[in-house]
Amino acid sequence: MLEIMNLKKHFNKTKAVDNISFKVEKGEILGLLGPNGAGKSTTISIISTLLKADEGKILYKGVDIEKNPKQIQSELGFVPQEIALYPSLSGYDNLKFWGRIYGLKGDKLKEKIKEVSQIIGIDKRLKDRVEEYSGGMKRRLNIGSALLHNPEIIILDEPTVGIDPQSRKHILDSVKEINKKGSTVIYTSHYMEEVEYLCDKICIMDEGKIIAQGTKEDLIQSISAEEKIILQIENISRKMIEEIKKIPYVDKIAYGENEITIQKKGNNVDYSEILELISKNQGHLTSMDIRKPDLEFVFLALTGRALRD
Amino acid sequence: MINIFLKDLKLFLSDKKTLASIILMPIILTTILSFALSGSFGEAGSDWTLNIGVVKEYDKNIEESKFTEFMVDFADRYNVDIEKFQAGENQFEEFNPEKIFFEDYLGNEEIKNFLNYEILSREDGIRKLDNKEISSLIILPKNYIYDMYINTFSNFRNKVEIEVMSHPDMNYSGSITRELTKNFNEIMSSIIISKNVYFESASPYLDLESIGENIPEILNSNEYKNGEINIEERAIDSKNYISSFAYYTVAMLAMFVLFVSSYGGKFILDEKRNNTFQRQIVSGKILQEILLGKFLMMATMVLIQSSVMIGFSKFVFKINWINLPQIIGITILSSLMVASLGLMITAITLKTNNYKISDAFSSGVVQVLALFGGSYIPLEIMPKFIGAVGRYTPNGAVLKAYIKTLEGYGFSDITEHVLVLIVNILVFLIISTLIIRRKSNAEFIKS
């Protein structure tokens, strides 16, 4: 349905998107996972025709969208990362405007506003001004505004940033429901658990490049990953890190102010060796968590950094 | 595009603060200025007259005797045959400065149509001026008669200063009086200059007796003629007079419509900041459609603004908006002018990505245009260069077109102002097009 080929985009000397390629099949949910600045938003801005690529090609249903942007524009539902609504208008007026933008009118428009407002859970507050909505409601309306015309493909750019867990769950469930109704979805996030929960296929991006892509299982398998150990420690020192690195079963290590993440290799591991080193270096262990491999782990394995860094 | 226009209109109408500033403010200002400056204007629909006072600080008999003494002394000193010289002097009576001023000038038929004068003492004149019983006071100074004779019949030149006092609340009337006085001075000066030129040219060849004999002939050839009074610009007979309420309704309207033009720029940047602009582009809308929506929104707001002002002034100030088709035509043209100007500001704002352009326009440029366009003070009583520039400003043209229509003039009399508006519209649209066509949608989004 959508094919991205050797896409490149730079801003001044910064390579925002560096020769990436991927495909999205009809009916699937593709996740673009990566930290802030990885190039996700630039990539979807090019796909949605907001920006022009420096090089490369994007085919939508076999048509080059640079030459014929209307092809994708009329079938696309775009949910930008920022709230793109009119705060001084009511929720109803916002939905009406965006519906009309896509050619809906009359009873059909009214029906769609009713349907979409129920999906996103704001049907009881439709007459209120958007500026009176909570952050979560604005986010949901932001998504709803892109759904009115039954788009064949929906792009959501970090739609859950800065909202409460309840709204976040509502949004994720809404995306699943939209997908079930037949829309293809491209979902960008730096929340690994969202992408794991939603997406059939995942592209992991970092510094403008796709460093891995496939299903969640493919990605974890690709790095032959094993468990990871997450330690919460007070008083982490450089010497402590260096000594932990020398332990034979430690494959990779990432650390922050009070946290060390270790990717181990091999079986029959004796964790006491790590605990002794922490104690020896005047560290104070507050928690220890052993996790099965996940996408965060994949990212750590591929970049040497935690996804949230 | 209609959808974008309706949304923009709804956004505008939902902003109470903006509505107050463009609809309530002109009504309030019109009311204040109209009452404060009502004395400067005539009453609409009435036979307006200019009531002035004239103070004679000279004594005609004493000054004539004084001049005769001067002539005798002059004849003695230069050994002139006084009989021969006075033969010409008898004809001097025909050149009587007092008669010329009161009978020939102020008594001229055209001036009499709109001017009443009364002879007053200085004290009474000032008192009446204070009470607004008269709008101006002309003071003919001491030695006026003597100095005028000296200037006319000798080769000397004494300074004659005619003073005009006017009430500060009656600027318009005061300005007319000053113009009339200035006109009189110019006529008298031209006569005196002709005499002096003759005096100096002839003195090497003729004796003083012969020069004296010929002076009356010179004076007659230059004598004041009715046709020399140029009162065309003041020819308001047969036309309706404009009250301060009518004037300031139009003046404030012409000024406040300009504020609407800054909202296109503000709206487009708001849309960029809240990402709805980008979202519209993604939906397949092109920049031109979005801008056309803003254009129609601004034009409609001016129509609403104008209708409210005209309606308010009709029902509250009882202003008679005659020739409604012409008023509607001017209002539509005015709305297109503001929308075109707004489009240009929007294009510049979009290119520079800076609210300062719109802000600078509404807080600075509009005020300058208002001053030059006559929104604060009528152009007739402003310095000439302001008047000349003002008639080509968009708001000045709107103001003039409305005022002339209210005065009873037809379309042919407002053609100049209509043309000014059309030229303004075309210039604004061309500049807007040049700015917009140089960039793609993506470039506007990026900047």
Strand and helix map with partners:
The complex is a heterodimer of chains A (309) and B (447).
Chain A: E1 2-11, E2 14-24, E3 29-33, H1 40-47, E4 55-60, E5 63-64, H2 70-73, E6 76-79, H3 91-101, H4 106-119, H5 135-144, E7 153-157, H6 165-180, E8 184-189, H7 192-198, E9 201-206, E10 209-214, H8 216-222, E11 228-234, H9 238-245, E12 250-255, E13 259-264, H10 272-280, E14 284-291, H11 295-303
Parallel strand pairs in A: 3-8, 3-9, 6-7, 7-8
Antiparallel strand pairs in A: 1-2, 1-4, 4-5, 9-10, 11-13, 11-14, 12-13
Chain B: H1 2-14, H2 16-36, E1 50-56, H3 60-77, H4 82-92, H5 97-105, H6 109-112, E2 115-120, H7 122-130, E3 136-140, H8 144-153, E4 163-166, H9 171-202, H10 208-222, H11 244-273, H12 276-282, H13 287-316, H14 324-352, H15 356-373, H16 384-390, H17 394-407, H18 415-437, H19 441-446
Helix pairs in contact in B: 1-13, 2-11, 2-13, 3-8, 4-10, 9-10, 11-13, 11-14, 11-15, 11-17, 13-14, 14-15, 14-17, 14-18, 15-16, 15-17, 17-18
Nearest-integer average pLDDT of chain B: 79
Percentage of β-strand residues of chain A:
25-35%
Beta-strand portion of chain B reads under 5%
What shape does the CA trace of chain B take?
elongated
What is the topology, as strand order, of the major beta sheet of chain A? 6-7-8-3-9-10
Subunit arrangement of the protein: heterodimer
Number of helices of chain B: 19
Topology order of chain A in helix (H) and strand (E) letters: EEEHEEHEHHHEHEHEEHEHEEHEH
How much is the average pLDDT of chain A? Answer: 86
Count of DSSP strands of chain A = 14
Question: Roughly how many Å is the radius of gyration of chain B?
Answer: 30 Å
C-alpha end-to-end distance of chain A: 33 Å
